Amino acid sequence: MSYYKTAPLLGLALILAACDPAARNDAVLQGRQSSQTQTDTSHAETGAYTCPMHPHYISDDPQGSCPICGMDLVPVKESGSSTSSGTGDILYYKNPMGLPDTSPVPKKDSMGMDYIPVYESEKQSGGVSVSPEMIQTMGIRTALVSTSDFTQSLRAFGTVEPNTRLESMVASRLEGWISGLSVRAEGDIVRRGQRLYSIYTPELIAAQKDYLASLQIGNARRIASVRQRLLSKGMQTNLVDRLTETRELVETVPIYAESAGVVTALMVRDGDYLKPGDAVMELQAYDKVWVIASVPESDLPAMRIGNTAQLKFESAPDAARTGTVDYIYPTIDVKTRTARVRISVDNVSGSLRPGAYADITFEAGLSETPPTTQLSVPSQAVLRDSRGAHVIIALGEGRFEPRAIEIGTSIGGRTEVLLGLKSGERIVASGQFMLDSEANLREGLSKLSEPTSGFDSSTALSDLPIDGGTLSQIDHMVDTALYFHEALIDGYSIDPSFLDPTLTLIENLKIRFTGSRLMPILDAAERAIYGAKDNPTGSPLASELSTLMTALDPWLTQGAPAHYKTEGLIFYSDDETGRLWLQDGGLPANPYSNANAQVIPWPDPMRPASAGETP
User: Fold this and answer.
1) Which of 268, 335, 504, 579 falls between 20 and 30 A from 538, CA-CA?
2) Which residues contact 330 (CB under 8 A, 6 or more apart)?
3) Residues near 387 by Cβ (< 8 Å), separated by ≥ 6?
4) 430, 445, 472 — which closes off a domain?
5) Pairing between strand 308-313 and 357-363?
């Protein structure tokens, strides 16, 4: 079973046609007869003519026209009239748009496009040959294997939080009653040196009297000792100096702010009685703030303290645009599989407010030593399935073949290649899924069953005639649910174009299973996937995932639960909302909320669902 990462499903083999053994034998026989007939005609009659658009039509009339399209006929070349790059006998003809339909004889689809011949040489090869026209139709793009230093940009998201280093607490050093409180509410701005409140304290009045008595006596040691006691009790130096000069008691002592900030908590009111150590208020300065970024676990190897981060704030477009990583938290969230990275950002203007959303781009891959270059390919070119990682090699002249590789780190859209490729080789970067599927088809790894009909709603899901090929088609919907879950957990938007193959397969399944219990599942899943194309991220995508999982629930638990248990999938529900999701093993990662996850056990006894089974 294959899964999404940053590309569509690898199971697009199901879009390409395959025929059953009997039909394939007929195709071989008729292909040989057709090939032999055309060869005999071209050699026996030098005046053979054919249609440029329909080369299977042969005529000896030089003035004739094609009965299909009306084009003038052209002479048949000695090398044959086929435009395909294959050689040998024609085995069968496949749908030009990749739909699950084959024919033992030449034919056209509903759009008037000719079916493509599949030759014996293509079947025997481990790769696949594709005509130039089909290369263009399939959107195949190639890229060279090259080296990269992996000093790439990494994208992340985060929120603004207060810098706790700039947090301070105002506490009482005296015992007494508050009066003249100048700070009245949370949010008031306090400047350094500002009077906060006054306090009437008999203890300090007694100390002042002791100080005045010491001045009268003139004992310098005694004067210094009592003066220090006044200062330690919170009396300001200027007040002690005034007391020394005027010899008049200060009955209410003003208390001044030793640091600046915004009041985040106020614990007292005028008239409150304080004891030493009682909290009066909390202050928080915002000249510097922290941005806490959530970085995927896979990107942590590239993070370093000192990395530069480029920041964008929707709530403050003119705020500071750069920051520096000053701390990487030592733990990883077991639910989201992300780590927290702290970025220090200047905020002299005060426009960055705690809780604000930040779009972050890291200049990753920095270290004390220069980065070493590594062989790499575009990440989208790497295919992953039960065989491991592999790519499609472009051999030239329309020939392609899969090759197993060993991969390393993926950063900035490129993946490190450890084994299997050489610099300068050309690989397929787009359209490789169809080519890989075609190669799998050549190896006989999957076949599609013939369309069936005559179902009614009384047939249980477990009793439907689901063979390996059909099960793989249905698995596309399950893979789509896994793709949505991963996008929500990793914080990226899905690519709507990746959903098109699944929607195509759903349409085919709906034709084959009209009237069955599978039909409402297909309808509901189709609506959810179409909805996700318009809502590719965030809570709207989570809603579509919930809808899709609700649709798939009957199939997962009643159709082929043994198949999904064997594949290692785990079925979860949100403890608070009951919404469902699937995971490919690992610890539970709730895509909906921070609520706990409940494992839904696969039903037992379960119906076996092997790849080649036909009930």
Assistant:
1) 504
2) none
3) 404
4) 430
5) antiparallel
Furthest-apart CA atoms within the chain: distance in Å:
141
Q: Are 68 and 190 within one domain?
A: no
SS3 of 615, please?
Answer: coil
At 441 the pLDDT is: 46
pTM for this prediction: 0.39
Residue with tokens 């989201």: 336
Q: Are 270 and 258 in a shared domain?
A: yes
Among 108, 140, 172, give the residue marking a domain's end. Answer: 140
Q: Which domain holds residue 420?
A: 143-150+372-430
- Has residue 272 been placed in a domain? yes
Any domain includes 189 = yes
pLDDT for the residue 63: 82
Please give the structure tokens belonging to residue 313. 């704030």
Q: Please give the pLDDT value at position 606.
A: 42
Residue/partner pairs of 37-45 with CB below 8 Å, 24 or more apart: 38/76, 38/80, 38/81, 39/80, 41/76, 42/76, 42/77, 42/78, 42/80, 42/81, 43/78
Q: Count other Cβ atoms within 10 Å, centred on residue 532.
A: 24
Query: Splitting the chain (615 residues) into consecutive groups of 10 residues, what average pLDDT does each group show?
Result: 38 33 36 39 51 63 76 60 52 60 68 69 57 72 82 82 92 88 91 90 86 86 88 82 86 87 92 91 92 89 86 83 91 91 90 90 58 78 79 83 83 82 87 55 40 62 82 90 92 90 88 87 92 90 93 91 88 91 89 90 59 38
Is residue 121 located within the same domain as residue 171?
no
Instruction: Provide the CATH number for the domain around residue 397.
Output: 2.40.420.20
Cα(498)–Cα(503) distance, integer angstroms: 10
What is residue 14's predicted lDDT score, i.e. its pLDDT? 32
Residue 114 lies in a domain: yes
Is 595 strand, coil or helix?
Answer: coil
The CATH number of the domain holding residue 226 is 2.40.50.100
